[in-house]
Specification:
The protein has about 425 residues and is an alpha/beta fold. It has helices at about 1-25, 30-40, 45-55, 70-105, 135-140, 155-160, 180-190, 205-225, 235-245, 290-300, 320-330, 380, and strands spanning about 125-130, 135, 160, 200, 230, 255-260, 275-280, 310-320, 340, 365, 375, 410-414. α10 (about 290-300) links the parallel β7 and β8 (about 310-320). The chain starts with a helix and ends with a strand.
Length: about 425
Amino acid sequence: MREHELQGYKSRLEQHVAQVEYLKHRVQESDQQQYEAWRSKRLDDPECDAFQREILRSKPQCAPQHSKDTKFRERLDAVQATGRGYTSQMRSVRRYTNICRLQQGTLHCNSTQCTQKLHSKKDSLQVLMECGHSICDSCLRSMDDGNCPVGCTTQLQLHLRPTACFGNERSGGGSKSFGAKLDAIARLIASLPKKDQVLLFVQSKAPSQDVHMIKDIQSCLNQSSITSLAVGDNSEHNAKALKEFQQTTGSTAKKVLILSLASEHASGLNLVNANHLIILSPYLCSTQHGYDATMTQAVRRIRRTGQTKKVFVYRFVALNTIDVDILERRERLLTEPIYSRGHPSARSLPEPSREAKAVPEPSKLVRDEEGSFALVPLSLLRDGFRGDEDYSSEFPFEYEDFNEDDGNSATLEG
């Protein structure tokens, strides 16, 4: 999926560059200066910059009918925006690839000056989380400046993460690991009472993403002998899956039903036979209203008339990633923290109150004085709630449609 998105960026970049090159002879002098400035500016990643310059050297052709009604400045803005998007996606793919190589034991130093082909534990590797490049301790000690050794402007002291943070490909029992988050979810579900059932919500923008994600989730659950069903875009299959999950009881009942937060198929369902709800990742939504509405819809699948058991809601986040950024910006709280599972103060959702409530406020993920994670309203931090460590992403959170004015893996229960 990541490679597919990367190829899409590359195709769009080629198209925009071709249009700019076609229009450059028909522009005013001021526009010509902007064009020259763009040609001389390099993308902030050596691999991406090399690709863009290769496009320019190939003198791309653009059919006149595709560009005759297009303003030059708009095309120039488009090619620069696409270049930034391509760079971001390339770095995402590189991070993912290097972490996979680390887990497989094949990761090596990306520095062009490195002379070692293999690296021992004594000469450990570290990964730059912004650009995804890896660097060994020997190269790190020999560097004069504080930037990425491959040529990026990434600052080492801000974005280096020891590779030990990412774990390895296999868990302690010798079985395959599906990542810290999915492994933690499998452990949680395995620890629940046998008769309790679970709704597991994933997030995706397209059905094709659901297919790959759900396949990994079910493989992880199967490895722990946890039975599951999934609801996708096939209406006939969905009806059968929902009926089986709702009506089958005893030893043949499925433990988990996997749903998509972004799908309409989950709206309005009565699934009170389940009393545990897991949010795989914080929901990335363009508005606060959209986030609140989606979360309410998800919780209302099990917390509604007919529910006879205590309801539990779990939110999973990967520490030091965009997960924490989204959770802190979107999960608005009143006066009480939400604690991690197992904490003495961990609570289920309170009963609805008809009394007037205070205005919800943004929150922050902290580790409290007892060593447990807590999602805390900012006012409590100002009032002296303990917890100073920052678990947000190590590089800037950027999402073009994210509207703030509108409104390792940690588990939060509440």
